[in-house]
Amino acid sequence: MRKITRREAFRYGVTGIAAIGSTAVLPVAANTPAAVRQKVLAAERARPVVGTIGHAGHGRTTLTSALTTVLARRYGGKARSVDQIAGAPAEVVDGVPIRASRVEYATPVRGYTHVDCASHKDCAKNMIMGTRLDAAILVVSAADSIMPETREQIRLARQVGVGRIVVFLSKCDVVDDAELIELVEMEVRALLSRYGFPGDDTPVVRGSALQALEGVSAWEESVVSLAGHLDGYVPDPEQSFDKPFLMPVESVVSPGGGPTIVTGSIEYGTIKTGDEVEIVGGEETIRATCTGIERAGGVSDSARSGEGCRVALQGVRPEQVERRLVLARPGSIAARSRFEAEVYFPSQEEGGRGTPVPSGHSAPFHVRTAEITGAIDLSGGAKRAQPGDLHAVGATLLRPVAIGDGTRFSIREDGRAVGFGVRITRP
User: Fold this and answer.
1) Alpha-carbon distance 264 to 285, whole Å?
2) pLDDT, tens digit, for every residue of 133-172?
3) Separation between Cα atoms, residue 257 and residue 288, nearest integer Å
4) Fewer Cβ atoms within 10 A, N terminus or C terminus of the chain?
5) What is the pLDDT of residues 58-93, one digit of tens each?
6) Cβ(408)–Cβ(128) under 8 Å?
């Protein structure tokens, strides 16, 4: 957004003297060259967040480097070497380090943010605690096929809501038997289908990231083909303001004789004056109507995700609303006291416990602004979770809380986080 000049006002057909000097997003001019128009439109599109997953040693980081390098040669941008990606400093999330490198690249269609994790555990921690992935590139070595970490990461990707997976069969340059590569592809498609992804329709690219990095033309084309599948198979990410409205309640006030006023920061979506909302997370769900909005010190007709605001509610008493509840679009989220989750238990070096967490352990759960005592039951008959372990659990809370698929939470005791989790729905 910037001020419109007189020349631009005439060029883009923005009429009226008042338009000159105003602030606006200019359209793409009809007489602008096609390549320039395409580049402008690509820059305006939302950037999907893509992550590389797969077994250690199958070439995740090499492929990430190849994507930045080959696409930079072809379309412009900044190349990143394997050493630069592997040597990136760890991100710290709530005191827990995640060895993840973020890079960017672009095609003529749109730009991408790419997350590459150093290890299997870092991949798991990132999916539970870190960046939400819109899509993943599953890297499988054509020489080795599916390995245990491959299965685990596909399962976790499905459970935490990764929308699409594109497959890159790496190291095809060292496999002479085409039938063996075909067999590996069939196995990968079957595994994806087993975990709820459309295996038969998933794009699979055969290539060699290492050869592409070294400039071998045929293998460079495999990386370009992979980027093309990202363009065509991965939809534009849903923006946070396009999602159903959700605002955790931080505080409640009630002026004498006036409506109940709720304060909070909007997590998703948009609210407008006159909208109906539900108050979710208590023993019962209550309907109310938004009769006024105040944000940034002034009255407004609407507010959107990322903004802090005060919402006036008609049809609800002050005692019916409290911190730990949420305002939400009717029917978009439910309150529950039992759910399944994937939980990472940080090690003592990461600020967690120094002793195992037994199945049935009770501790305070923190979900948005709610703090509720709950217990965990480790799945698969496990008796205890060691520090540094990732476990599927069943959680039981003393009171219901508003929680949906992908909702993240922490388990805390003695002022420290002993577990980080995400609510899942099993396929």
Assistant:
1) 18
2) 999 999 999 998 999 899 999 999 998 889 899 999 999 9
3) 17
4) N
5) 999 999 999 999 999 999 889 999 999 988 888 887
6) yes
Yes or no: say if 109 and 159 are a contact pair by the CB < 8 Å rule.
no
Contact indicator for 219, 208 with CB cutoff of 8 Å: yes
Q: Which residue has the tokens 């949420």?
A: 326
Structure tokens at 168: 């890159």
| Pair 420, 410: CB distance under 8 Å | yes
Question: Is the separation of the CB atoms in 260 and 312 below 8 Å?
Answer: yes
Cα–Cα distance for residue pair 298/373, rounded to 1 Å = 38
**In which residue are the tokens 């409290």 written?**
322
In the Cβ-directed half-sphere of 367, how many Cα atoms lie within 13 Å?
29
At 199-240, the pLDDT tens digits run: 999 999 999 999 999 999 999 999 999 999 999 999 998 888
pLDDT of residue 186: 95
CB 290 within 8 A of CB 274: yes
DSSP string, 180-246: HHHHHHHHHHHHHHHTTS-TTTS-EEE--HHHHHTT-HHHHHHHHHHHHHHHHHSPPPPPGGGSPPE
The per-residue b/e assignment along 22-43, b for 16 or more CB within 10 angstroms, e otherwise, is eeeeeeeeeeeeeeeeebeebe
Tell the residue number behind the tokens 């006023």, with chain if given. 261
- Cα–Cα distance between 14 and 29 in angstroms, integer? 11
- Relative to beta strand 335-344, strand 326-328 is unpaired
d(CA 71, CA 49): 17
